[in-house]
Amino acid sequence: MSSTPPGTPPPPDDSQQPRRHLNPPPPLPPSRPVTAGTTLVQSCLIAGCVTVIVPFLLVGGFFLVFAFLFSSQISEGLDGGWGAVSQGATTPNLRERVLRRGAPDAPTIAIVAIQGVIEGSGSTLHGEGMMDFVAAQLRAARENDKVAAVILQIDSPGGGLTASDLLHHEVKRLRETGKPVLAWSGSSLTSGAYYIAVAADEIMANPTTTIGSIGVVMQHFQAEELLAKLGIRVDPITSVVHKDIGSPFREMTEEERRILQDYIDAAHSRFVAIVAEGRTMPEERVRGLADGSIVTPVVALDQGLIDSIGYFDDAIAWVESATGSENMRIVGYKRVISLSDIFGEAGASAARGAVETARQADTAPRIRAVP
Questions:
Q1: Is 293 a catalytic residue?
Q2: Rounded to 5, what percent of the chain is helix, strand, coil?
Q3: Residue 217 CB partners (closer than 8 Å, separation 6+)
C-alpha cells in the first residue's frame, strides 16, 4: 500500500526529463557566411581554367609535337641543321645533316654509318630494321648528283647473312655510278661487316680496329635433358621427316647435322667468293685466311684484307684525292617520322582491329529465338 497522503501530486517522471551532463560538449563554432561575390569569383576562376588554361595547354602540347615532327624539315641555313634530301624519290623520309659546309660549290661526301649488329628483313627498297635504314642512305647517295663520294663508317661485329648480302649488293650498285666508295672502320670490322666492306673501292681501318672473323655460324642449343628433369616431353607432329630439323627439344641426328653443315659450308663458300671478288684475290688464298680468326690492322694489311691504316681525317683526305676536290662538303643522313607514318600505322592498327572484331563476330555462336 502507498503511504502518500491524498491530494499530493505524483512525483515527476525522470525518464521524460533531459539528462544533465557533468561536462557539457563545447558549443559549435559559428558558421562562416558565404557571400554571392565569393561564389561568383570562384566560378569565374573555374570557368577560366576550363575555357582558357586547358585549351592553351592542349594547343601548346600539339604545337610541341608538330614542332618536333617537322623540325627535321627546316632548311640547312645553319651548320648542323637538317635539310631535305635534294634528290631521291625512293627515300622520302631521309634528311641530310650538314657536317661540314666546305668550299662554295664543292661536291659532297655522304657519310653512311653502319653501326651495331647487322639485322633486318625484307628488301633494300622496302624492308625493316637496320638493313632498311642503311639501304635507304645508300640509295640517297646514289641518286643525288651532288654526292661525289661515299664513306662507309663501319663499326659492327657482323650479323645476319642475308642482311649483309643485301647491303653488299647495294654498295655495289652505288659503285656502278662511278662514285668512289671508301669503307672506314674505327673499332670493329668483322664477319658480316667485312662482308659489306669488301664491296667498296678501298678499305681503311683505324690503328686499333678488330678485323676478320670471316666465316658463318649457326647457333644451336639442346634442352632435352632439362625438360626431362621438369617432366616435360615435346612430341611434334610433322608432315615430313626433316620439318623440325634443328629442334632444341631433342638430340640432333647425324643426317640432320650433315644437312645443316652442308648449308653452312655453302654460305661460307659464298662469303669466300665475295671476299675474293672484292679484294681481287684468289679464292684459295681467301679460304686459307677465312678460318674465323680476328687480326690486327697491321696483319690485315699484310694479308691484303685492307688497303690502309688511318683515322677519319685520313679517310676524308683519301676521298678528296680520289675526286680531285678540296674542302668538300660533308653530310650525313637521318630518318624522320612523318605524320603519315604515325597516322598510317594507327589506321592500319585500327583496320586490323576492325577486321578481327568482324571475324570474331562472324564466328561467334548465335542464339536464335524459337517461337
A1: no
A2: 45, 15, 40
A3: 264, 292
Q: How far apart are CA 141 and CA 91, in angstroms?
A: 10
What gap in Å lies between CA 208 and CA 81, rounded to an integer? 32
Work out the burial of residue 235: count CB atoms within 10 Å of its CB; fewer than 13 is exposed, 13-18 middle, 19 or more buried. exposed
C-alpha cell of 57? 595547354
Catalytic residue selected from 72, 164, 188, 191: 191
Contact 314, 93 (CB under 8 A): no
Spell out the alpha helix ranges (H) of 161-234.
161-175, 192-197, 224-229
Bridging pattern class, strands 294-295 and 210-212: antiparallel
Query: Is the Cβ–Cβ distance between 130 and 163 less than 8 Å?
Result: yes
176-212 per-position pLDDT tens digit: 999 999 999 999 999 999 999 999 999 999 999 999 9
Name the 3-class secondary structure at 145: coil
- Distance CA(102)–CA(105), nearest Å, equals 8
Enclosing H/E stretch for 212: strand 210-212
Query: Is 72 designated active site?
Result: no
**pLDDT tens, residue by residue, 118-172:** 998 877 677 788 899 999 999 999 999 999 999 999 999 999 999 999 999 999 9
Spatial CA neighbour of 179 closest among 325, 292, 51, 75:
325
- DSSP letter string, 266-324: HHHHHHHHHHHHHHT--HHHHHHH-SS-EE-HHHHHHHTS-SEE--HHHHHHHHHHHHT
- State which H helix or E strand residue 48 sits in: helix 36-48
Residue 2 CA to residue 257 CA, distance in Å, equals 120
Q: State how far the Cα of 332 lies from the Cα of 312, in Å rounded to an integer.
A: 14
Catalytic residue among 86, 121, 123, 243: 243
> Phi and psi dihedrals of 315, rounded to 5?
-65, -40
Question: Max CA-CA distance within the chain?
Answer: 145
State pLDDT tens for residues 166-185: 999 999 999 999 999 999 99
What single DSSP character describes residue 52?
Answer: I
Determine the 3-state secondary structure of 191 from DSSP.
coil
